[in-house]
Amino acid sequence: MKEQTDVCPACGHRLKAGVKVFEGFMARLFVQAARLSKDATVEWRADRADAKSELKKAYLSDVVFSKDLREAGFATRYARLGDLKYWRLLKQEPEWWHQGIYQITDLAKNFLSGIASVPKQLKVGGGKVFEESEERIYLQSALGNRWNEIADWISDWRKKRANEGGQGLLF
């Protein structure tokens, strides 16, 4: 997969597409996001630019806030956290756009459990995935030598999921 210009089938605009690879940094970013996920009541403005717009509220499970990554000392730009959406490991509802609110997906839980893989490379442009590589990667492979640093946390996470009845199940 090489960087190239593609034409959007919906609107006909030329989009410059780049290749994103899931390994190393992206794997560590994903693990940190999963570590920081929590069940929480989330509030956001219907119109972020208007402080008087309606305040919306919802209770969500497995929420990740981009600000929590910064506060935990993980050096990244918020845009990189959003890149995990391309692999369907995080989701972000349209109302939360630019709000820094993400949710861990069922695929992400299976990926952490070691029963799912993701494409190693994606060709993306204009916020869309144009192509997925046939080569797939599991979290342990993506983390490489860093696996040993988080293996205990992953093991604890898997045990907790098993106790909740989620281990071994594809969601």
Strand order of the largest sheet: 1-2-8-9
Largest sheet: 4 strands, antiparallel
The chain-level structural class is: alpha+beta
How many β-strand runs? 10
Number of helices: 6
Tell me, briefly, the overall form. globular
N-to-C SSE series?
EEHEEHHEEHEEEEHH
Uncertain stretches of 5 or more adjacent residues: 167-171
Give the N-terminus to C-terminus distance in angstroms.
31 Å
Domain module tally: 1
Strand content: 25-35%
| Portion in helices | 25-40%
Radius of gyration: 17 Å
Mean pLDDT: 80
Task: Describe the model.
The protein is α+β, with helices and mostly antiparallel strands and 171 residues long. Helix content is 32%, strand content 30%. The protein has helices at 25-36, 66-71, 78-83, 106-113, 139-143, 147-163; strands spanning 4-7, 14-21, 38-45, 55-65, 90-91, 101-104, 118-119, 121-125, 128-132, 136-137. The strands form three sheets. Strands 1-2-8-9 form a four-stranded antiparallel β-sheet, with no helix packed on it. Strand 1 (4-7) and strand 2 form a beta hairpin. The radius of gyration is 17 Å and the shape is globular. The chain starts with a strand and ends in an 8-residue tail after the last helix. The model is unreliable at 167-171 (pLDDT under 50).
Q: Topology of this structure?
A:
Layout: E1 4-7, E2 14-21, H1 25-36, E3 38-45, E4 55-65, H2 66-71, H3 78-83, E5 90-91, E6 101-104, H4 106-113, E7 118-119, E8 121-125, E9 128-132, E10 136-137, H5 139-143, H6 147-163
Antiparallel strand pairs: 1-2, 2-8, 3-4, 4-6, 5-6, 7-10, 8-9
